[in-house]
Amino acid sequence: WVAADNDRILSILSSMWNGLSMGHKVTEDAYAQISNSEHSKLVEAIKAYDEEKAKQLMYAHIIRSMENILTHFVQDHEVLSEID
């Protein structure tokens, strides 16, 4: 995210992705390590022409990412509800 050299994008992405679906807070660096690991495994499966493995890894990555977004959305919504 920092490589984009855009503070607004950094802030938005940090805010959106700061949390695993389990509800634990993680740092940007920790999330980047998780994401990079998933991407590396996906690249290795593609290089090995392992279509089934690549499909499974991509599916798991998408599901985890969606859960992260939903978790963050719910947490933000609950905070906003308390303010109202």
What would your notes on this structure say?
- With 84 residues, this protein is an all-alpha fold.
- It has one domain.
- It has 3 helices and no strands.
- The longest helix has 33 residues, at 51-83.
- The termini are far apart.
- Mean pLDDT is 76; it is low at 19-23.
Fraction of residues in H or I helices: over 70%
- Mind telling me the C-alpha Rg? 15 Å
CA-CA gap between termini: 33 Å
* Average pLDDT for all residues: 76
Number of strands: 0
Can you write the helix and strand succession as a string? HHH
Overall SS class? mainly alpha
Count of domain modules:
1
Largest sheet features: none
**Beta strand %:** under 5%
Our count of helices gives 3
Which parts are unreliable, with pLDDT below 50 for 5 consecutive residues or more?
19-23
Overall outline:
globular
Concise structural overview:
The protein has 84 residues and is mainly alpha-helical.
Break the fold down into its secondary structure elements and pairings.
Layout lengths: L6 H11 L10 H20 L3 H33 L1
Helix pairs in contact: 2-3
Task: Provide tags for this entry.
84 residues, globular, mainly alpha, 3 helices, single chain
